Amino acid sequence: MTVFIYEHLTSGALAGETLSPSLMKEGDAMLTAICRDLTALGCQLTIMRDSRLPPCKATDASLSVLSVDSQQRYRQIWQQSLDQHQQFIVIAPETDGLLEKLVRQLEERDKVHFGCRASIIALCTDKLECSRWLTQQGVVTPESVKASDWSYQARPEASDWIIKPRDGAGCEQTFRMTTNEIRSYLNSLSTAELDKQIVQPFIAGMALSLSLFVTETDITVLSVNRQHINQSNHALKLNHCEAGREDLIEPAAVRQLTQQIHATMPGLWGFVGVDLVKTADALWLIEINPRLTASYAELSLIQTANPAQQLMPYLKED
Predict the structure, then answer these.
(1) Are 26 and 7 within 8 A, CB to CB?
(2) Counting beta carbons within 10 angstroms of the beta carbon of residue 110, is it exposed (0 to 12), middle (13 to 18) or buried (19 or more)?
(3) Alpha carbons 205 and 235: distance in angstroms, whole number
(4) 62: nearest Cα among 26, 30, 37
(5) 211, 245 in Cβ contact below 8 A?
């Protein structure tokens, strides 16, 4: 069983650009975890690797590494890989529609993609449309408003708000501000910038996430995770994800939410992350990440069972 694993940050797609150590660490952790889990199950893997990075920690005889040292080389290897390989796992940020674009390339070539369909990735990527869709389906989620429209309504002065990119990933460019602070901030943005941002009420509670494996017929909770988020000068940053915290949510509440997600988001498939905030009386769904997330790296380290085992019924022999 041969699988091509594409992890965008470490793939060489950023050849010629300055690498962010924190982003490289996160990308490498996800890549290493899924490679280790799949090779333990007997899979042959191929990855692309930015030549400036140290060797992948999961390197063994089952892993083939294609070195990338330029944008031209990156495009060449990716196109060759699309021609030569049949089974893919794609890990990439949703920002600027990147994940959707990569998956559409696979779908156009009738490749086997162990992940979400491009159509549902597009919905989850657009945080404004996804919020509206979830609200229509009766899912408890914060109301999202385009930043350009937010100021036209009266807002409580004592409230806190979250402003973030409409198509961002993780805590990227996510800020918490008071009503007056956010008004001042929005006044500093251009019309084009305002259209790319959304504003949500800040939900005070415990930040959590779910690591899921989703198929057409079922949804499995792999782990409940506690998200430790820090704030510095309004900016939010995920400092650490603590997997294996099933004690923090009642199983019935998790079951109800995941069944809602499964029923209302057709096209989710494979490893999926869901960001939540738990309050005294509700479980708020903040975002759906239609891909393998950083919590998988934590999950694979603490689980006695191999989470990639979920893929085994769907992997095809060469």
Answers:
(1) no
(2) exposed
(3) 17
(4) 37
(5) no
As beta bridge partners, residue 284 has 277
In whole angstroms, give the CA distance from residue 180 to residue 314: 52
User: Which pLDDT band holds residue 156 (cuts at 50, 70, 90)?
Assistant: confident
Per residue in 250-273, is it b (16+ CB within 10 Å) or e — as a string?
eeeebeebbebbbeebebbbbbbb
End-to-end C-alpha distance for the chain, whole angstroms: 5
CB 312: neighbour CB atoms within 10 A? Answer: 13
Strands 160-165 and 270-278: unpaired
**For the stretch 11-40, what's the b/e string if a residue is b when 16 or more beta carbons lie within 10 angstroms of its beta carbon?**
bbbbbeeeeeeebbebbbbbbbbbbbbbbe
What's the pLDDT tens digit per position in 93-150?
Answer: 999 999 999 999 999 999 999 999 999 999 999 999 999 999 999 999 999 999 988 8
